[in-house]
Amino acid sequence: MAFDENDHTSHVLLCASLFNQMNAAKGSRAHDVSLQIVISAAAFLYEHPEAASDSRAQNIAGLNAALNVYEKFLAADPAAKSSFYDNLLKKRNDGKLDKEVAGMCPK
Fold first, then answer.
1. Residue 90: what pLDDT?
2. Banded pLDDT at 64 (limits 50, 70, 90)
3. Which residues, other chains included, contact 71 with Cβ-Cβ below 8 Å and sequence gap of 6+?
4. Residue 98 pLDDT more than 70?
């Protein structure tokens, strides 16, 4: 779908609890990582307009991208470490990120 063909009726459905926790996370790049969830959730929605009403899918897609960015920051600068994001990385690596998001963000 081309951008100019988008009907602009879909909105990113961010989970306030998750986003607030991301904004409150400590770490030298934590704020940058929290912005990534917004950008990536919007990109996911643009690529998957059928998920317009699926807030969990939008948040999981955005969070996965944000965690990828966090890993890049850590690789470049270990001072970017954040216990909040480290915990989410562990959940993702253990295959439990979807369940974690479901607990924070009921539909």
1. 97
2. very high
3. 89
4. yes
**DSSP assignment, residue 105?**
S
Q: Give CA 73 to chain center in angstroms.
A: 15
C-alpha–C-alpha distance, residues 32 and 10, integer Å: 25
Amino acid at 17: S
Amino acid type, 78: P
CA distance 16 to 22: 10
- Distance between CA atoms of 26 and 106, rounded to whole angstroms? 25
With a CB cutoff of 8 Å and minimum separation 6, the contacts of 65 are 36, 37, 39, 40, 43
Q: Name the token pair of 104.
A: 């924070």
For residues 19 and 6, what is the distance between their CA atoms, to the nearest angstrom? 26
**Contacts of residue 7, Cβ cutoff 8 Å, sequence gap at least 6:** none
